[in-house]
Amino acid sequence: MTPRGKLKDIISRGLVIDIFQTEQAIALDWEIGSHAEEINKATFGDLFGSLQWILGRHAILAVSRLFELPNARYLIRSIPTAIKLLKLHADDLPIKKKPFVIGKLVQFGHRDNQLNRLSDTEITKLIVKEFSESLPSTAQASLNDLSRALNALKAARDKSIAHNEAIQVSEIPKATYAEIDRLIDYAKKFVGVVGFGYLGVHYESNNGEYVLRSNAERASMALKRLLTISGVLKDSRFE
């Protein structure tokens, strides 16, 4: 597989799917939580409480996958793997949308007049530098909010979900949905820049919004319709 093919595989079959599944799980969990009183009153609390538990674990696994470190034995579809690929093949990955990538680097604080004189390889190295320096890492969990959030997620995954260690729940770091949102925002920014810049695939709109977010929220909208049709929720159209 060519470097471009590998990059496309990592993004389209890995990062995009994990971002989608995380946002879908969070949207469903939020919808259930927003109507907890009505759901409990209708005696469906056990069902939807179990669904929330499953959704939370699913979100933790999906976000953790986004930041898995490269593995020499097999391809890991993660942001660190994509960054490593860009670094190793900077000479072999021509930029499809160079003005777009330059514009993103300007947003990161680089000077426009200097960037226009750089080759694709040099610009790719800048992209690698920008995302490498801001990449959350469990090895640096005390340095910034993103790293602390990732550390909490991976601790929950490794000690509770994946291996079910005999450990007190209070000993496992906690990550809030707000922290998960920040990790997902980082992943969406990476996909938006690299996906369009190198592959020509739009993952964000002209105003910077991630285009697949609305798709991820469709399931939660369907759930609200189901709760309304079943009588758990009142239909506001008739109030």
In short:
With 239 residues, the protein is mainly alpha-helical. The chain has 11 helices and no strands.
Q: How would you describe what is shown here?
A:
The structure is a single chain. With 239 residues, this protein is mainly alpha-helical. The chain has one domain (3-238). The chain has eleven helices and no strands. The longest helix is centred in the N-terminal third of the chain and has 32 residues, at 3-34. The chain is elongated and about 65 Å long. The relative contact order is 0.16. Mean pLDDT is 87; it is low at 162-173.
Number of strands: 0
Q: Name the helicity range.
A: 55-70%
Rg (C-alpha, Å): 20 Å
Average pLDDT figure: 87
Order of helix and strand elements from N to C terminus:
HHHHHHHHHHH
The secondary structure category is mainly alpha
Gap between N and C termini = 59 Å
Strand content: under 5%
Domain module tally: 1
The global form is elongated
Number of helices: 11
Largest β-sheet summary = none
Unreliable runs: 162-173
